[in-house]
Amino acid sequence: MSYNAKTYDVIVIGAGHAGCEAALAAARLGHQTLLLTINLDSVAMMPCNPAIGGTGKGHLVREIDALGGEMGKNIDATMIQCRMLNTAKGPAVHSLRAQADKKAYQFRMKEVIENQKNLLLKQQEATELIIKDGKITGVEVQTGAIYGCKACIVCTGTYLKGKIFIGDVQYESGPNGLFPARFLSQSLKDAGISLQRFKTGTPARVDAKTLDYDEMTIQPGDETITPFSFETESIDIDQVPCYLTYTNQETHDIINANLDRSPLVKGDVVGVGPRYCPSIETKVMRFQDKERHQIFMEPEGLHTREVYVQGMSSCLPEDVQIALYRTVPGMHHVEFMRSAYAIEYDCIHPTELYATLAHKKIDGLYFAGQINGTSGYEEAAAQGLIAGINASLKIQGKEEIILDRSEAYIGVLIDDIINEDAEEPYRMMTSRAEYRLLLRQDNADRRLTPIGHEVGLISDERYQKLVSKTEAINREIARVKKITVKPSAENNAILKDLGATPISSGVALDTLLKRPQITYENTAPFDPERQPLPDPVKEAVEIEIKYEGYIHKQIAQVKNFKKAESKKLPKDLDYRSIGGLRLEACEKLERIRPMSIGQASRISGVSPADIAVLHIYLNHRYQEKKHESEN
Amino acid sequence: MIGEHHEDVIAAIATGAGEGGIGIVRLSGEHVLDVLSRVYTGAQKPESFESHTIHYGHIVHPQSQSIIDEVLVSFMGAPRSYTAQNTVEINCHGGMVVLNAVLDAVIEAGARLAEPGEFTMRAVENGRIDLSQAEAVLNIINAKTEKSLRYAEKQLAGGLSQKYTAIDDELIHMLMMVDASIDYPEYDIDGMTENEIISAIDRCVGLVDDLLRTSSTGKIMREGISTLILGEPNVGKSSLFNALITEDRALVTAIPGTTRDFVDTYLNLEGIPFRLIDTAGIRETADVVERLGVDRALSLIDEAELIIDMRDVSRETQVNEMIDHQLQQKKRIIVYNKIDLNSENTYSDCDVALSAKTGEGVDELKAKMVEAVQKSYPMSDDSDVVLNKRHADALTEIRSHLTEAKNTLQAGLSVDMAAIDLNEALVKLRAITGKSVGEDIIDRIFANFCLGK
Fold it and tell me: What is the DSSP string of A192-220?
């Protein structure tokens, strides 16, 4: 029997990385929020690798932090190793990645949630969305309680009709042996939301006692840790190393001999898996010529001997898994603590969402995370934060926020998933961002903290700090530009030491800084009046001067991009009534309902000719309106 | 993108392709008269044109001020024009070659080549056409754009497409390598060294240059092969000119030095357009006006692609030291004229012997002209493979992005910086070939490398 329980402003279904950010944002913005999870011990769980960040993903975490989300602070507090990747390359692609103590990460996030005002965390399986007249009004849970709500954010991850595959063994399950969500899929379908099956996989967790690290290559963390959060001053921990090892011919022979036992090959798995998380059998099948594949051993925490074997996800039968793992140097005597598995789950078509992450047909219903066909903790958290902010803004009657492709990786992520029906889970990559020199991890605060402040997630104090930092950067850039370096013997000796060509006439310091060997730090001798500045300020000054020309190039590209984005398409546009649109384009436009001409142009199947037609239509409509208002 | 830059002056040939006598180049935009004033000479300056008036004058090249065509220009002020903007129509003397030359001139003077249907679109946007009319027009525009896309595809189906594909492959390969190493810094990727990327960029530049060279073939197809008739005064240049075009265009007299300036017209031989330029007789002269003509003729030799070097069989030819050196470098046809006066001679030291007066040997000259040009400008039978102006412009931009990417690497900056220009080059290349970039690079990364946890 169902009964009416309490009414909340916002209900978040699922307390994974998306759900946690969504619930925290809504509660922090002053809304009574209920966060439902199938199991209270799985809050902010990392069912796959014990790491946060990485290329592209590290940018997302920085952006989440800049907007007032929790992920950056949480990993800063619970990391056991940290590295800045790509430091040999340009500043646009520097990316932070940290190894997390998984349990510590979960506990800290749970604690933050429990201590958050306006937020209640509850162990309940959501079974049905209550929708009245196209609007979400509540959520029913397995015990029959119906909680009312003004907005609901669905963050069910891989739980919906989850099914695990380990060779011939297949069973219904959520990730990591947790219960799957068995009922909500039907409720979504009843609401007219179409579902698809995606697949992902995870390698075995092995017992560190049974590993010979001597046979592997040690991979230590950075000497100085750069924190994720702009609010974390510094991190001082004893870091735990990772280890690198390789597969070999023997490994590949075992795989090839047992391919017929793989549910992937047999076709039992119907879900589509991501190319960037291929199982070891997929790697061996697809790259027959490759003699060895890299395997990274990542410890799962300080108080556990479990080690994550990155690069060896598999859904081969367990006996085959053990045999092939034992061919790898350092793992000859390995014992499994958890077996590798593939998991298949229901997700929605994110093309049914607006860029706000609200569903186009059901008022007040938002979706975030893996249910939107993405993969990755960071991708999920980023969407959760945006959905949480927008559900709140909607309740407040304010305009919801949309970050565009020139503002944030989060904008790229959301724009990508809502415009294109992906055929596989979506992962963030720096290659997806057109304006990556502008979307750096070091300037995420300058890009997004003003927005976070405007929304209400960033305190006045933090905002003022940012304003001061920005001013300090601008002041220092202006000052450096006025300094001329004289071609004195002394100065040229310094340049020679730096491996730079000497100068024969006075050169502006900012021009000198554009040379590859020259840094802000090593030009101090030319600049006696320089005042001490915080590291982030110095870093920003150097980047903005050094790459000025390239930054301007990207700004010019953004200008063109913005022009098309500013041409808004009305929400109620009846595309079928516009003569001249091709049928395919018309169907796609009707379905996706882009917000702007720019967005329309990124939908596959919409040709330049169709865009021209839209332009004309818009202008005409504008002229008619003008005409009406004049009469 | 179509429909943007409403403020631009746009230009296009408004009449259909073909060999019709009269063609119209149409311009539209607020500042259309400014553009016109840079290419038009006539009794009245364009800025003082009244709306809905017609003016007689010449279209001249905006830089050299050389005359391109004798024209009638009509001006329709906003909003009483097709587009409801200020509009100018230049009525030219026929032939696509002249029309294209006029179009190039107005573009050089600041107009932009109109996208297909853009005039109509402006008409719609400015409320010139009502909604029911507009819907019919929308269909047409769509059809037109589709047609132009098909045309582009056809263009790309020939030998050019292989070059485009090769550039595309190189670019995608470079970006794939760069991005794979960025997104998977910890994986064993046999990436490209900076020198390998520079070599790949050089290969791309080479391919772009090949394409741009076909574009100079295209330019010739549009503008005609500039063919200069040179010779001493009264050697019969104007007579030959007339014999070739069979039209009294240049002034012919028996008085030496009558042709004081050059006159040009167009000639179509076996589908190849020649721009025929008659010059003042080249000789040392005291006549200042005539002297001016000689200097211009000398400068024209420089620009000419083909020279018809005329001599008079009835008198001794005086070798002009000044121009002989210049002529050595050029493709030239040596012609003896006036064989009607000296019929018993055989002429072995020339390419063609003819009589401009009787017409004897003129066809032989025409054949030699075609032959000379085919040798130096290999032209495909399919005139569609000639690059159009938009493609040539895009290729020039692609070339500069490639060069900048190379400079970036040579300056010692990292590959992801060079990727900014490489990406732009790819986007511009794909704009020509009509494909979107989408996930192509990411697809390649995963097709080529074994990556991921």
Answer: T--EEEEEEEE--EEEGGG--GGGSEEE-
